[in-house]
Amino acid sequence: MYNIEKPQKAIQDRCKYVSNEKSKLRCSQFTEDDRKSVFKQFWKMSWSEKQVFITTQVESKHTERSRNRRKEETSRRTCIYIFSLKKADRTKIRVCKTLFANTLAIKQWTINNRLKQNLNISQQEKKKKEDQTDIENNQTEINKKKSRELRRNRLKEFF
Ligand SMILES: [Zn+2]
């Protein structure tokens, strides 16, 4: 009776930005055809493939401190994300977040969540590695102690 279908995913409007010399964004170089093929490719993927796609297309970078003194207070060192999409010939085009999200027809917060999770994972991995090193260090300490004791015992036996 109630035939409620999920609204079909559709490509969203492109951003309003026009690439200029100053900006590093090249949104306007990413044509409608480019967008359509990325969109198709993306929606053929499984959920986990989509996640991987997002994290590989987005690069995180630490921003330089601003040289503008007036701006200095507002611009602290933060992590920024660089979004890029690939043309059919594999050229990477740096685009804004809006074009990125709208081309894939996903919400910006979906991307945010994904990137946050990714950041957490890498931090956890880093911590795990540090813990592992701690354990290994402890282990070497224990081994050293053991071998010292062993040597002492041997000496005792010898005399
Ligand atoms: Zn744009």
Describe the structure.
There is one protein chain. By secondary structure, the chain is mainly alpha-helical. It has a domain at 27-106. Helices cover 55% and strands 11% of the residues. The chain is built from five helices and three strands; from the N terminus they run ααβαββαα. The chain has helices spanning 32-44, 47-57, 69-72, 97-104, 108-158, and strands at 58-62, 79-86, 92-95. Strands 1-2-3 form a three-stranded antiparallel sheet. A hairpin with a 5-residue loop joins strand 2 and strand 3.
Number of discrete helical segments: 5
Biggest sheet strand order reads: 1-2-3
Strand content: 5-15%
The strand count comes to 3
Overall outline = elongated
* End-to-end gap: 96 Å
* CA-based gyration radius: 26 Å
Order of helices and strands: HHEHEEHH
Structural class: mainly alpha
Give the rounded overall mean pLDDT: 83
As a percent range, the share of helical residues equals 40-55%
Q: Extract low-pLDDT stretches.
A: none
Q: How does the major sheet shape up?
A: 3 strands, antiparallel
Could you tell me which ligands this complex binds, including any ions or cofactors? zinc ion
Keywords:
159 residues, three-stranded antiparallel sheet, elongated, binds zinc ion
The gist of it:
The chain has five helices and three strands; from the N terminus they run H-H-E-H-E-E-H-H. With 159 residues, it is mostly helical.
SSE layout:
Blueprint: H1 32-44, H2 47-57, E1 58-62, H3 69-72, E2 79-86, E3 92-95, H4 97-104, H5 108-158
Antiparallel strand pairs: 1-2, 2-3
The structure holds zinc ion.
